Every structure is written in C-alpha cells, then in structure tokens.
Amino acid sequence: MIAACRSCRGPLVRTFLDLGDTPLANSYVDEDRLGQAEARFPLHARVCDQCLLVQLDHSVPPEDIFTDYAYFSSYSDAWVEHARRFADAAVERFGLGPASLVVEIASNDGYLLKHFQDHAVPVLGVEPAANVAEVAIGQGIPTEVCFFGQNTARRLVGERGHADLLVGNNVLAHVPDLDDFTGGLAIALASDGVISIEVPHLLRLIQHVEFDTIYHEHFSYFSLLAAERAFGRNGLRVFDVEELPTHGGSLRLFACHVDDPRSEGEGLRRVRQAEADAGLDRIAAYEGFAAKVERCRRSVRDFLGSVRAEGGRVAAYGAAAKGNTLLNFCGVTASDIDFVVDRNPHKQGRYLPGSHIPIDKPDRVRAEQPDYLLILPWNLRDEVMAQMADIRTWGGKFVIPIPEVAVVE
C-alpha cells in the first residue's frame, strides 16, 4: 500500500472509490491458463487531502504491466485520425520543421509520430513495451525501449539533444513516480520548447460516472488543478488547455518552462473556472462517488439478468481495459456474455481477465447474431456502431453501460 501521495508526498488516507481486488486489466488469459489462479491486486483509489490528486494506493510494478503489452493504438481508426489532426496542428502552431525534434513518451506502435514524419519533422519514440516498440521500429520510427524518467531524459538529451515538442498522450496516468517523470520532462525540453500532455479529465470521470477508466495501469486521475501542482513542483507551467472528447472527456495540457514568457490561453482560464464551479478545489466534491458507481453496477446486473431470463443472448465489442474493470466489478462472467470481439489480432483467441469471456474476430457477431452488443469501449461508440451497423438487420441492439445501461435501438 502507498501511504504518501505520488505527487506532493502528503498523507494518503481518504477513499475515493474502492473496487476490490481485481486482475490486471490487460492481462489477457491464454486457453492453457484458464484453470490457473489469476493474480489479483487491490483497486482502491484515494484522494490526497493536500493536493487533491486522485490515485491508487497500491502499485503493481510497471514491468509487470507494460513489458509485453496487448494494446496497439493503430487498431482504432478514430484514434489514428485524432493523432493526425494533432500533428498537423502542432506543426503549424509551433513552427516545427526539419531542424526540430519531436519526442513522444509512450509512443506505442508509432501511430502518432508517423504523422510528424510526413511533415519531414525528425522524431523519437520512447516505449517500454518491447513487442509494441518493435512494430514502430519496423515502420521506420526510431524508438527507445525504456521507461521515461530523469535518467532516461539525461541520456536522450546527450544522444539526440533537447526536444522542441514533447508529447505524452494518455501516459501521465501510467506513471508511478510523478516527480521523476515531470522532472524528466523539464530536463528533456528545449528552453523554448513545448510539452503536450493528454489526460482523461477527472471532472468528466466524476460527472459521467466513468469509474471503469480506473484500473491498475492508471496510477493517477487528473484534474487541471492537480496537474498544475505536479508540473509546478518541477519548474514547469501549464500555459494553455484544450478540452477533447476522447476517453469520455480529456484535457490536452500545453506546458513550458516556468520562465518561458508565453501568455496563458483562454482554454486554461475556462477549465480552471469549470473545476472551481464543480468544487474540485474542495474535498467535498470527491465524496459520494461510490454511490453513483453502485447504481451503475445494479443496472448492468439487472440488464444481463433480464436478458438471460428471456432467453436472449448478449455479446460484447472491444476487449478493452476499461471493459475489464466494469465486468469484474459487476461480477460478469461467460454465463452472462457469450463472447467479446475485437479487431486486435493480439487479443483474439484469448480470454478476458477475471470474467474469462472468449475473444474472437468481429465476424462472429454476424455469424451468431446476438440480440444485444454491449460496447465496452464506450468512448468509441460512434466508430463501433458504424462498423457494426448491420446488426440491425436481424433486430440486434447496441448497449452502452456507462453511466447506467442504455439500449440503443
């Protein structure tokens, strides 16, 4: 158990949400391991009374999670397009060119950096999962296979120089030692460089009951307030913010060295005010979340029970980490959901952790024609519903589980 805040080192005693002991969300099970016990770890989120960072109070070693990783960004068309738009805008906004250097931390399979290469901007990826980094390297994207922190930053600066743009999309939550990571950002960044960090927004998590985004890979859950405090302790300053629809509502934080003269953007002022209006600067706003989560659990259990009682069949789309948090917390098994489909071949033929629901190709939905298709990566609902629109030909219906079960005709 972690007794001190990952950010400010204050005491960590107040519960935000306790989801019990669960398996790792991306630890997919091979068929020959189905009879073996799975490792389970506490999934207990607390909020720091001092800096108001929401965080897990238990750390699974990053090497156990990220060394051999089953998530490949390129299998989501929407996410690849999101990356392309960002790269195009960043090149123009920050004047990037052949003399610049873009470094992405947690660069995955190169889904983002390839778009900067299209602009003839030199790039470097930093990715700890060797199996994922291998894909990027095979596509001509130089990638360092390592975790990022202050020591890595010093080495990369010595080898490649400082970064004009440091990108970290959905990686800040994965960092067990925030000071080491943000300190590394400060070391790696050029004196007039820019950091772009995307994080799911805690305000949206609370408002929309997105508790399934809590899993062991995500050590922390950020408000703008908590992020600014974490950056400030390491000589960095957030100067602008963009609000994004990704992951149920995210923030794109733009940061620079604290002595950089850049002026603050309107987006920063707007999000600060939204968080203040929601009370995120006061501890009371973090209480009562568990009751909302319990209502969601009841709605999932009631829906699956009623379908089973009527002789109907439910399949799921997307072997997503968030889906595994949802299914395990709700006590769902293969007796409730027949199978889950996913476009990622690295997951097909395996089983979801905990629930042991088999993972297959999307074509199985059309072959077996279930009555309902539960969309586990609900943040990609539009993309999934477009891909699987033909389920309506046999009367199939989509189901969205968050914040409570909703059936889409």
Q: What labels describe this entry?
A:
single chain; 409 residues; alpha/beta; Rossmann fold; 2 domains; seven-stranded mixed beta sheet; six-stranded mixed beta sheet; 13 helices; 17 strands; 21% strand
Written description of the protein model:
The chain has 409 residues and is of the alpha/beta class. It has 2 domains: 64-260, 3-Layer(aba) Sandwich (Rossmann fold), CATH 3.40.50; 289-408, Rossmann fold (3-Layer(aba) Sandwich), CATH 3.40.50.720. Helices cover 32% and strands 21% of the residues. The chain contains 13 helices and 17 strands. The chain has helices spanning 62-66, 77-93, 113-118, 130-138, 150-160, 178-188, 202-207, 224-232, 266-277, 289-309, 321-330, 363-368, 381-387; strands at 14-22, 41-47, 54-56, 102-105, 123-126, 143-144, 163-169, 189-200, 220-221, 236-244, 250-257, 314-317, 340-341, 359-360, 372-375, 397-400, 406-408. The strands form 3 sheets. A 7-stranded mixed beta sheet has the order 6-5-4-7-8-11-10. A 6-stranded mixed beta sheet has the order 14-13-12-15-16-17. α5 packs parallel to α6.
